[in-house]
Amino acid sequence: MTARIYRPARTAMQSGTAKTDRWLLEYEPERPREIEPLMGWTSSGDMKSQLKLWFDTEAEAVAYATRNGIAYRVEQPHEAKRRSMAYADNFKFSRVGQWTH
Q1: C-alpha 100, offset from chain centre
Q2: Lower Cβ count inside 10 Å, N or C end of the chain?
């Protein structure tokens, strides 16, 4: 079973970068989920898919995986490109587009 080591992105409800500095080790599912015929719920016999391990650094997560003989894949995070712009730039004389209300 392969584990995925990554740093989760912020949720859609977050405007800042809180809780995005820790690394997560998650197991990938071995087999797809099945629909239970009686109730129609989705179920899985894979217990490792419920396991999530949090680490402070990527090195700690990789060291844990190698120490326990877990095959892993590291996904590097994509950093957001921030463009700073002042409110006054909307009204500057050299603005490319025409300003309207």
Answers
A1: 39
A2: C
